[in-house]
Amino acid sequence: MDVLFHPCLVNCHLYTTTLALLLIMELYGLSSSLRQHLKTEFVLVHQNETWEGALEYCRTHYTDLASLSTKERMDSALLEITQAETEYVWTGLRFLAGDWFWVTGDDLNYTAWYQNEQPQCPARDLRCGALDKQTKLWTHRNCEEKLSFVCQ
């Protein structure tokens, strides 16, 4: 076997560089914050947009507006919105044709409505779902309001 192409010699530099980087990150306490950041599936966008504008932005730059379809996803989003500059933050929750739904197509089995009551047949301009920073619950808002929003 040719010594120049031995797998250890070819990959040794990459291996030692990775090991050194991980050690430095651990020493400076960066690994836990990096791990925490990597666990987060949502991104808070500080740009204030209407609900439609937020939807377009998320679909262009990420995947979609956030679907908070489980308690775990809701908790993850709540961690993200603490830095929002608006009191409410747009989510992917929408009312259309008599039903609330997630624009991602996720099931609406888990709910976290303000006063534990899903708005039935809300006024035409109050058919967009937002997350309230104070109550940490869902609410319906005027779709033309300009709010921060959460993408996934």
Description:
The chain has 152 residues and is an alpha+beta fold. It is 35% helix and 22% strand. Strands 1, 2, 3, 4, 5 and 6 form a six-stranded mixed beta sheet that branches. The N terminus is likely disordered.
Strand runs, count: 6
- The number of helical elements comes to 4
* Computed Rg: 21 Å
Q: CATH-wise, what's the superfamily of the largest domain?
A: Mannose-Binding Protein A, subunit A
| Beta-strand content bin | 15-25%
| Distance between the amino and carboxyl termini | 49 Å
Structural class: alpha+beta
The CATH architecture name of the largest domain reads Roll
Largest sheet: 6 strands, mixed
User: How many structural domains are formed by the residues?
Assistant: 2
**How confident overall, as mean pLDDT?**
83
Briefly note the CATH topology name of the largest domain.
Mannose-Binding Protein A, Chain A
Spatial shape: globular
Q: What is the CATH class name of the largest domain?
A: Alpha Beta
Low-confidence stretches: 1-19, 30-38
What is the helix fraction of residues, given as a range? 25-40%
H-E order: HHEHHEEEEE
